[in-house]
Amino acid sequence: xxxxxxxxxxxxxxxxxxxxxxxxxxxxxxxxxxxxxxxxxxxxxxxxxxxxxxxxxxxxxxxxxxxxxxxxxxxxxxxxxxxxxxxxxxxxxxxxxxxxxxxxxxxxxxxxxxxxxxxxxxxxxxxxxxxxxxxxxxxxxxxxxxxxxxxxxxxxxxxxxxxxxxxxxxxxxxxxxxxxxxxxxxxxxxxxxxxxxxxxxxxxxxxxxxxxxxxxxxxxxxxxxxxxxxxxxxxxxxxxxxxxxxxxxxxxxxxxxxxxxxxxxxxxxxxxxxxxxxxxxxxxxxxxxxxxxxxxxxxxxxxxxxxxxxxxxxxxxxxxxxxxxxxxxxxxxxxxxxxxxxxxxxxxxxxxxxxxx
Length: 357
Prior knowledge:
CATH topology of the largest domain: Protein Transport Mog1p, Chain A
Order of helices and strands: HEEEEEHEEEEHEHEEEEEEHEEEEHE
Number of strands: 21
CATH architecture of the largest domain: 3-Layer(aba) Sandwich
Number of helices: 6
Radius of gyration: 24 Å
CATH class of the largest domain: Alpha Beta
Oligomer: single chain
Distance between the termini: 101 Å
Helix content: 10-25%
Largest sheet: 7 strands, antiparallel
CATH superfamily of the largest domain: Mog1/PsbP, alpha/beta/alpha sandwich
Shape: globular
């Protein structure tokens, strides 16, 4: 009899604790985040997490950071990217997996694991790919374990990173569940807006892209080399400019964006460089080093490298280039995680000509 009563008590306690744990695991709240005039992105976020939105001054995409209000620290960061309007959609499933695979290969040299596996994320409303890795030499006070990937909710891509230490399983599980819960509500007024503002005309000729921005007279050309037009960076700030363009190089490792502006909008070389320096001084947890300026052909050029303070080995090389030809000012931003030389070589392949009247 005593054994039966004891077993019954254990069963009741088990059910009680199971119910408490399930209740805590399921305790989420719906939180919404603005995607400029594109719409809103919503997540089911654990109720005991805090959030912080960082908004760069010269780009529309916010970075949303989630941390626990108490307990062992971890950090879940999500940066959404969205298309400019009707008729454009993000890369397909295979392309997303390829991007995540490329990122895993980039960080492999600093990881403990000999092999980094790419895993599928199947959320309640978002899907994607991710990998997990262990930092071989984490910074003092930093995080040892990282999970990183790309997920898609509708036409919105989310680049996400989960950083944790000893409690990584719980943090990763909760972080992936939150990312997988993402849903985008597109603004009705935005759906057709992108097409009306997309003034840059993109054509192809002899293995090159050819860009024009009416009513200007300048034609910009550069090798295709795996680059794909992807205006997912649009939707606010300078990227709302009808002269804006964006190309993602995928496996080539190059990302190119830029603007066509009236020649009168350009003041002078030194003010151009000073404006960039000012923006680079307000990047919070990102460090900027090796800033140099030079002349390359007809371009005024600034190169610099960027990396997170907590992960200095994850370097992104950047090149800004500006020139005024005829009635047009061209401002380029080229970035790569491979090398600065790759950026310079690409810039030298860019051609400028005047349209025939």
